[in-house]
């Protein structure tokens, strides 16, 4: 009996290590070892100061008139006003209440109400994180110094592509959203089988229905590769020989069709909320001018009545993840043979946490600038071996 309780306590602790993202938590240290998107350039053009909650921290993201960005604590250290209502000066963000001004390093550089010669402002400093723009996303690093390099993955920077990004907000923990990527079978049972049941009821033609003959997983420099062999394909199928990556800790990169690249990045807002960026990079039409802005669109998972939109592929994934609960009770799961990828992923995350706690870099930490130029080529199969035509795959626009 004691044994059972101990085992449960151990498991509960293990899942806390994986799911919690706040400052000082093991999982929070893991997230803070990587650059994460904090916003988009498009939204900052509309409004130059925005509140951002990231890894359980309340921050404001701002765009200075010279086009540089800052990410600093939301609470004004004077008397606690939210700096989301601040206004931009060329050199910093000005609190609306008494005009204290903060630069993008979190230094207080002006206190207009204080007597000349006052040194109070020199003793005030608030939290500030670096921001870098890449591919229309604003990336930040919230971990200890020295910051690693922001990896220039091809999907975000390769020339000759037209890009756009969808955004979804999910009221659930990040882990259950990313585990979906290590779970190839759900494609067969949910996106194909379930979709076809719905389509049959509606008198619609079925989408392609295929069966996984086998699946496999392996590590690569930036995370893990997921491979599948569909029944009827030969072993030289790129989905089996190459597969596609899950870049640690939270990004999937796939090819949709005809060189249309797609990435999905899940960013923990806090323990029970996740932002999901759906990132498309399609071949640019011949002769088109380079994009000056990467458009952003909403990608909802919910119907107006608050239930999951299960007719589309993205609504199926997101709606079911949300239905698992705010932080799904991993301890109550009955993991099966088909969950090998999920188990490997959890184990790999726990190993990265152990590495960080031992003062080492986790997998995918980039510190060699030579590897980062002109970009990092991700391994990915040439295309998915199935088509969602007719399945309203709105994650990558509806088609
Ligand atoms: S509360 Fe911000 S300047 Fe006073
Ligand atoms: Fe899916």
Poorly predicted runs of 5 or more residues: 389-399
Distance between the termini: 55 Å
Mean pLDDT figure = 93
Computed Rg: 23 Å
Q: Write down the secondary-structure element order.
A: HHEHEEEEEEEEEEHEHHEEHEEEEEHH
Query: Which percent band covers the strand fraction?
Result: 25-35%
Q: How many alpha or pi helices?
A: 9
CATH class of the largest domain: Alpha Beta
Helical percent range?
A: 10-25%
Instruction: Kindly report the oligomeric state of this protein.
Output: single chain
Ligand names: FE2/S2 (inorganic) cluster, fe (ii) ion
- Structurally, how many domains make up the residues? 2
Morphology: globular
Could you give the order of strands across the largest sheet?
13-14-15-16-17-18-12-19
Please describe the biggest sheet, giving its number of strands, its sense, and whether it closes into a barrel.
Answer: 8 strands, mixed
- Count of strand segments: 19
CATH hierarchy: architecture of the largest domain: Alpha-Beta Complex
**CATH fold annotation of the largest domain:** Naphthalene 1,2-dioxygenase Alpha Subunit, Chain A, domain 1
What structural class should be given to the helix and strand makeup? alpha+beta
How does this model look, in words?
A hairpin with a 5-residue loop joins strand 7 and strand 8. The chain has 399 residues and is an alpha+beta fold. It is globular and about 80 Å long. It folds into two domains: 105 residues, Rieske Iron-sulfur Protein (3-layer Sandwich), CATH 2.102.10; 219 residues, Naphthalene 1,2-dioxygenase Alpha Subunit, Chain A, domain 1. The C terminus is likely disordered. It has nine helices and 19 strands. The structure holds FE2/S2 (inorganic) cluster and fe (ii) ion. The site of fe (ii) ion has 5 residues, from helix 6.
């Amino acid at each position: 009996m004691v044994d059972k309780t101990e085992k449960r306590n151990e498991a509960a602790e293990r899942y806390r290590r994986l799911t919690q993202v706040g400052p000082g938590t093991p999982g929070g240290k893991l997230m803070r070892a990587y650059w994460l998107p904090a916003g988009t350039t498009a939204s900052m053009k509309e409004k130059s100061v925005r509140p951002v909650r990231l890894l359980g921290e309340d921050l404001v993201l701002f765009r200075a008139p010279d086009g540089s960005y800052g990410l600093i604590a939301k609470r004004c250290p004077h008397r606690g006003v939210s700096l989301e209502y601040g206004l931009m000066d060329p050199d910093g963000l000005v609190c609306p209440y008494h005009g204290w001004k903060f630069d993008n390093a979190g230094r207080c550089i002006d206190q207009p109400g204080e007597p000349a010669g006052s040194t109070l402002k020199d003793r005030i400093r608030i939290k500030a994180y670096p921001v870098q723009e890449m591919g229309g996303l604003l990336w930040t690093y919230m971990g200890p110094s020295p910051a690693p390099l922001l990896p220039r993955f091809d999907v975000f920077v390769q020339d000759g592509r037209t890009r756009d990004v969808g955004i979804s907000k999910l009221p659930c923990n990040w882990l259950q959203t990313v585990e979906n990527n290590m779970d190839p079978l759900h494609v067969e049972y949910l996106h194909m089988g379930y979709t076809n049941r719905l389509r049959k009821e509606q008198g619609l033609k079925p989408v392609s229905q295929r069966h996984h003959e086998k699946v496999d997983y392996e590590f690569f420099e930036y995370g893990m590769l997921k491979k599948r062999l569909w029944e009827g394909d030969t072993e030289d199928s790129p989905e089996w020989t190459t597969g596609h990556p899950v870049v640690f800790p939270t990004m999937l990169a796939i090819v949709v069709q005809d060189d249309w690249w797609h990435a999905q990045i899940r960013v923990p807002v806090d323990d029970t909320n996740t932002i999901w960026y759906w990132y498309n990079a399609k071949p640019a039409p011949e002769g088109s001018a380079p994009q000056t802005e990467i458009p952003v669109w909403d990608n909802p998972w919910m119907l107006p009545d608050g239930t999951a939109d299960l007719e589309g592929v993205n609504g199926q994934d997101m709606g079911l993840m949300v239905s698992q609960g705010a932080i799904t009770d991993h301890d109550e799961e009955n993991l099966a043979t088909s969950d090998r990828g999920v188990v490997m992923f959890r184990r790999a995350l726990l190993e990265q946490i152990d590495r960080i706690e031992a003062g080492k870099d986790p997998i995918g930490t980039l510190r060699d600038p030579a590897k980062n130029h002109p970009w990092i080529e991700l391994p990915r199969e040439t295309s998915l071996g199935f088509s969602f035509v007719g399945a309203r795959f709105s994650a990558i626009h509806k088609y």
